[in-house]
Write a structure and sequence with these properties.
Elements: H1 27-36, H2 49-60, E1 71-74, H3 77-88, E2 91-96, H4 102-108, E3 113-117, H5 128-140, E4 145-150, H6 163-175, E5 179-183, H7 201-204, E6 209-214, E7 227-230, H8 235-251, H9 257-267, H10 271-297, E8 301-302, E9 310-314, H11 319-323, H12 330-341, E10 359-363, H13 372-380, H14 388-402
Parallel strand pairs: 2-3, 2-4, 4-5, 5-6
Antiparallel strand pairs: 1-7, 6-7, 8-9, 9-10
Length: 405
Amino acid sequence: MRRTDPEGHGPVRYGPPLPGQGLPVLPELAAVLSAAAGRPHAVPPGGPPALLDAACGYWDRRGLPTEPDRAVAAPGAPALLLALTAAIGGDVLLPRPCAAWWEPQARALGRSVFHVATPVECGGVPDPYALLETVRRIRAEGGDPRLLVLCVADDPTATVAPPELVHETMEAALGEGLHLVSDETWRDTLHDPHDTVLLSPAEMLPDGVTVVTDLAGPFLPPGWPAAVARFPANGDGTGLRDRVLDVLTALGARVATPVAAAAAYALGEPDPVTERLATAVRLHARVAAAAHRAVMAAGAFALPPRAGRHLYADLAPLRSALAAHGVGDAQEAEDFLTARLGMPAPGGHRFGDDLAALRVRLSTDAFLGTTDEERAKALTAPDPLELPHVEHALTAFGTALEDLR
C-alpha cells in the first residue's frame, strides 16, 4: 500500500500553506478579526449581508456586475464546490492536472469524475477537442456529464490560459450542455499583469458560468476559511443558488463570524490589503522564476509560472537518474524529493495526473524561510533573492536537482 505522507503520518496538505508556513498576518486584518470575535450573532447560511455586498463590489470592479442575491459565502471553496456538485448532479469533468481539492468533493458524493487533457501551453482549462471526445465517450457508456470545473489562473501549474483557448473550451462545453464552474482563487496573483491577459469565463458568458473564489491564500491567512460564489443572473442561476444554499444550510457550513468580518474587509480592498497582496505577488513571482530557472538548468522541464505560488515540474528528462534511486513514478518521486529537498513535493497523481508521469508540484512558500522573522524579511526585502536564507534554499534546491543529472 502506498503511503499518503513521506513520514507515514497521514495525508499531506497540498492546498495553501499550513499555519506558521505562510506570510505574517496583516495587522489590519488581525484587528478586524479580533474586534468581531465577541459578536453574539451567528453568521446566517450563505453569508452575512456585509460580506455579500463586499463580494459584489469585488466582482463589479472586475467587470462582473453582481447583486447580493446572486452571491453566496461558505467556509472555504471545498464546501462551495461540494454544494455545487450536489446541486448540479451528474458526472464531473476536470482538467488534468487540477487542484488537489476538486476531485474529493465529487467522490464524497459518489459522483464519477473524468479528467480531460490540457493543451501543452497551459493547465487549468481542458483542450476543447479532448473535452468533446470525453463527453461523447461518457454518454456512449451510459454516463451523464453535467459539470466542468476549470481554472484560468491555475493551481497546480501556475499558468494562465489564453482567452482564445478559454473561449473555445467554453463553446465546446456549453454546446454539450455542461455547467461551468470557474475557480478564480488566484486571478489577482498574476506575476506580470501587464504581459498576461486573464479573462474570466463569466466575462465571456455571464449566464452560463458560476465563479468560485477562495479567499484563504490570496486575501486571508490559510487558517481563516472563507470563500464566495457568484451565480448567473438568470432563472437557472437563481435555482442553482437556492439549491446550493439548501446544501450549505443542511451541512451547517457557515463562515465563522470573525472570519466573515475579516473577509468583508479584505474584499473591500482597502490600501493595506491591496498593498500587501501586490507585495506578496512580487515576492512569489521572483522566487518562482528562480526556482523555474533551477529546474530548467538541471535538465528537467516546467512551464514558466505566471500566477499563484507554485511550480509544476516534469522530471521525465531525469528518469534514468531517478531510476537509479528507485524512483519510477510520481509517488516515488514525491517520497524521494520530499526527503532530499526537505520540502513538500507532492506528486502529480495528487492532482489527477498520470501516476507514471514524473511530475511534482513545488511551493514557493517553502523557499521563504522557516520562521516568522525570516518570512517577514522576505516580504519586505528590496530583493528577496539576496537574503541569505532564501539564497541558500534556492541554491540547495538547484544543487539537489543538478546532482540527479
